[in-house]
Amino acid sequence: MFAILINWIVSAMVIFSIAYVLPGVSVIGFTSAIVLALVLGIINAILKPVLLILTLPINLLTLGLFTLILNALLILIAASFVPGVRVDGFLWALIFGIILSIANMAIQNFLPK
Question: What is the pTM of this model?
Answer without folding.
Answer: 0.91
